[in-house]
Amino acid sequence: MDKLNHYRQLVQQLLLKYAAYKPAHGEIEVETIFDNVHDYYQLVNVGWDHETRIHGCPIHIDIKNNKVWIQHNGTEIDIGEELVDLGIARSDIVLGFQPPYLRQFTQFAEES
Predict the structure, then answer these.
(1) What fold, for 3-105?
(2) Sheet containing 27-35: which strands, arranged edge to edge?
(3) Which of 8, 46, 60, 61 ranks highest by number of CB atoms within 10 Å?
(4) Looking at the whole model, is its pTM more than 0.85?
C-alpha cells in the first residue's frame, strides 16, 4: 500500500475510534467526515444538550503533500502521539494549529 493510502487509512481509523465515544449528556451525535478526494478528515458533534444547540469540530486532520496536518485538536487527547503509535513518522506529522515559528520546538515536522 502506498504511503498516502496508508495514512488515509490510519487517520480514518483514529477518528472512527473516537467517534465511538458518545457524550455522557444530551442528544449528541458524533459524526465522521472523510473526504478522500481532498484529504480532509473531521470529527463533528451535532445535536442538543437540553435547550442548547451543539455543533462543533473537536478534531480536524488534513493530508497535504504526504504529511498529516493536525489542523485542530479541541480535545485532551494527544492526537500526534496517537498517530505515531499507529505508525506515522513524526517527520510526517505537522501541528497545523501551532504558529509556524513554534513548530521547530515540537517533536513533529515544521512544514510540508
Answers:
(1) TATA-Binding Protein (3.30.310)
(2) 27-35, 40-49, 52-64, 67-73, 93-94
(3) 61
(4) yes
